[in-house]
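debug: dumping io for the single-chain case to check the tokenizer round-trip. Nothing else runs in this session.
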Amino acid sequence: MIRGPEKVLRRHPPSYNRNISRAVRTPKSEGDISSVFVSLSGGATAPLDSRFAKLKRKLIRGHEDRLRESWKSLLRDLRDEAEIIQTSSTSVIPEIPFHHIRNVPLEVQNEVRKRGVAVIRGVVSEAEALDLKDDIQGYIKANPHSRAFPPDNPQVYELYWSPAQVRARSHPNLLQAQRFLMSFWHSTDPSAMISTDHPVSYADRLRIRNPGDATFALGPHVDGGSVERWEENGYGLGKVYDQIWNGQWQHYDPWESSARLPAVTDLYNGAGSCSMFRMFQGWLSMSDTGPGEGTLLVNPLLSKATAYFLLRPFFSPIRWSHDTAATAELLRPDNWQLEEKPTSTLQGATPSHCQELNDEWHPHLQLPGTMVHVPRVRPGDYVAWHCDTIHAVDSRHAGKTDSSVLYIPACPLTEANAEYLVRQRESFIQGTPAPDFPGGKGESEHVGRATIDYMKRAASEEGQAAMGLHEWADTKTQGTEGEHDIIQNCNRLLSL
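debug: decoded output
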């Protein structure tokens, strides 16, 4: 029986617990996916407050010489990696058959860690994936007033609670694939309150992109906040990127999870914020879609790309004109210098929005050549990418059939994620948009939306637990102290 929320927060310091206790928030305005992107919404990028200049100075104080050398080293590595990516293109993305995920060769595992992206083939059957799409299209037809982007020619729907979506999120194969992906993460703290064996469901949108569409043109970006990555009360709470600020980017580990637990990724509660810890973003394909056909592009340089866009605001070119952008002279390491007087600029970072990137702001990433398409996907394939991965969407759908996906990330069980799940569960019951997304009445008046009774019929106990509708089972005999504690705490938190 689901009762009122009861918080049992322990083990972490008071500052961490205060970050968890954010259940009451200002409701978000109605909107659509364009609210997430300054570039997509047509808004202008406003200069950041002068406090960001002081923040930049503080982040690197005492490490300036080491930072200069690490920057030069990073630029050399990026140059070499860019050549590999441009030569390999789509083939650089690891592909794993679902029925092999219990026995993945070490070399493939290493490629996933290096590239930060993977395609898992056949997570659900092709017939089942097509049935999901048919059900969704019927749901949209029954509810023609559903909010979508763009309104006059919908490609991305503000739908979260269709029966097909909740059925897909709770599918046992998808939960198994998520556990496999989250196993790439590790914690240096055995008492860290996290379990990657217990996926948490994060309700997200869906896409049915039609041939010829050029409106849903998302440029290179990284989700999970923007300015928060530099802010002390954002990712700084867990010191996630401290090794990069200290001039030791080579030692930065993008797969260490305990540092991410206290991090706040949504300081401004914007329409594009994400308050859940998503280890991987991902989508389940419902169509046969290849490169150039309205699909995903990724930058498979994970740790190096992250270090670059985080350090870029501290450096400026000695010689740069718009006529010579991306030339060999511009990219030379000796053409870049550490800012003598830090500015407030954080290229591509705007409060309340995601982190955007482009070739002018981030020339050494050589984005036109290093943003590569994921391989052709079939219905039932699952594509996942690390939460810090730069990704984009084809500027135009040049294919002949729809490019359709259900957005389903992989999220571990943590106290912060369980606290979000309390709010998300209430949204599910009411039929309103999930808490991270633009608000309004959502699907509260929709015909045929999923209910708790439907979930009890359609989902296993594990699938229901992922939605906060059933208690989690602690069956791991060799788990850490933190893994056992988090299950008990979150069951109490969700009043299960």
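debug: round-trip ok. The CA atoms of residues 420 and 442 lie 18 Å apart.
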